[in-house]
Amino acid sequence: SPLKICGEVELRIQQKLLGKMRALDAVARVVAHPQSLAQCRVWLTEYLPGVEQIPASSNAEGARRARDEQGTACIAGEAAADVYGLNVIIDNIEDRPDNTTRFLVIGRELLAPSGSDKTSLLLSARDTDAPGALYDLLAPLAKHQISMTRIESRPSRLRKWHYVFFVDLLGHAEDEKLRPALAELRDKASLFRILGSYPKGME
Q1: What are the tens digits of pLDDT across the range 122-162?
Q2: Cα 22 to chain centroid, rounded
Q3: Backbone angles phi, psi at 105, to 5 degrees
Q4: Is residue 93 located within the same domain as residue 153?
Q5: Which one, of 115, 105, 182, lies nearest residue 146 by Cα?
Q6: Cα–Cα 20 to 30 A to 83, which of 17, 51, 140, 169?
Q7: Cβ–Cβ < 8 Å for 75, 40
Q8: pLDDT, the chain, mean
Q9: In angstroms, what CA-CA distances link 104 with 8, 82, 146, 151, 190?
Q10: Structural domains of the chain, count
């Protein structure tokens, strides 16, 4: 694909308990996306012990059910309260006050260095079953003192137990310090793709 990551935005996520009711003791069940339930697990355990937690395909689905079902509350943002006609029962029930979601900006060109950049890569080792395969693949980063801020694995779909890795690095692909590390990664990897170099996001 010709598309590249050309920016990132990190948004503070505030989870709210919404429902037609106004009091916690009227909540019989909480419906939300599994990620939202996980982000509010401590609060739910402390303030709604024994209340059924039901995973939904999305928080919008949870809000729809909270609108239509007696005793059902949901976890969502304030916009859902406006759209579905729900009350905000409790504000900010997320367990971590720094709860954020990262959004990527997609474009067609690799941006010039800004002086404060990240580079995102898609990688796979030549033999992901071999002991130390990932360690060996990423060795050029340590050698050239490149900081890695994120790594995430996904099945490659080529064969069972074969993985690709999404990696974020500090620096721009055109930086003098990063270029040799990327060249060595390219030589070691069975799959090497620069997904983009872009300015680091700000909250």
Answers
A1: 999 887 777 888 999 999 999 999 999 999 999 887 777 67
A2: 32
A3: -100, 125
A4: no
A5: 182
A6: 51
A7: yes
A8: 92
A9: 4, 27, 22, 16, 25
A10: 2
